[in-house]
């Protein structure tokens, strides 16, 4: 693994259609690349944000037909950068299940797709402020974890609500992930209470860099997201963060040798023990 990786997290307020979604995110990615970023990450649901089921279905298409995915593949090749599409809502391809996939996609500097991950844990919750989310009604959860190779080290892929399930992150770290992506569209109440704490905990537990680009602000469908994109180092230190929910580019430089140092200092990934119970 080489040191000194310049990255950028793109914080967005993605519109309700793929065409508008691409027009929204492309200038931010170009800005990031112009600033020297070699690896650029976008948030969850980067192709469109639309909860209303009567409108959402018209935009869900196959991965190889989605305008944002195709546009960002072309952009990666043009700019010579790696791009993680934090996620896009696309057809899952599962027989007998018409729900979509919430799919994270890793694009190399030639525009090729080199990593895919379907969000494992779907967000079904009734919040104290009256907000209700039933992601499982329209999103088919994935059934496997993904670690992808990059020129700088291995990337473990996750999405949003996954961050509350630490056993997934331990598996990613034990599979060699030096960086873990957590693209998100966090709600405001849960974001304010838990966002940074959860991300720092996952970094400490795994000894990995945690890269968390986020949606932020009031979306066209009435949803509000927390923003506050953040980069956390393998010792749990905050390297860079935004303190708002406006669209923006967050830059950071990762010294990837810090991963080995953190894991040598606290070698917990080597200390798992089998145990019985509880019953």
UniProtKB/TrEMBL annotation:
PROSITE patterns: CN_HYDROLASE, UPF0012. Pfam families: CN_hydrolase. Keywords: Hydrolase. It comes from the Bacteria. InterPro entries: C-N_Hydrolase, C-N_Hydrolase_sf, Nit1/2_C-N_Hydrolase, UPF0012_CS. Residues 5-256 form the CN hydrolase domain. GO terms for molecular function: hydrolase activity, acting on carbon-nitrogen (but not peptide) bonds, in linear amides. Belongs to the carbon-nitrogen hydrolase superfamily. NIT1/NIT2 family. This is Carbon-nitrogen hydrolase family protein. It comes from Brevundimonas goettingensis.
